[in-house]
Design brief:
It is built from four helices and no strands. The chain is an all-alpha fold and about 90 residues long. The longest helix is centred in the middle third of the chain and has 37 residues, at about 10-45.
Length: about 90
């Protein structure tokens, strides 16, 4: 950024920018902490004998609307049949 562009920012704008950057940095740190917690829960699930790959797939599928999921499954089955894999 050019010095002249920086001088055009008002103090209010500069402060708002600093606050926005700080908020994003805090949220990124929280995201990192949550990701670590999720990793720990998957490790616990594995210790209980659950298949973590299947568990991850269940979590991913539950995020998808039921109708969309059924459509995806239908297309997958159609493609498998068309390629002789079903």
């Amino acid at each position: 950024m050019e010095d002249s562009a920086a001088t055009h920012l008002t103090e209010t704008t500069k402060e708002k920018l600093r606050q926005t950057v700080g908020k994003i940095e805090r949220l990124e740190e929280e995201k990192k902490e949550v990701a670590e917690q999720i990793k720990e829960v998957y490790a616990e699930a594995k210790a209980f004998g659950f298949d973590v790959k299947a568990l991850r797939q269940v979590i991913r599928l539950r995020k998808v609307d039921k109708a969309d999921r059924e459509e995806q499954e239908m297309m997958l089955e159609l493609y498998l049949m068309a390629t002789g894999d079903s």
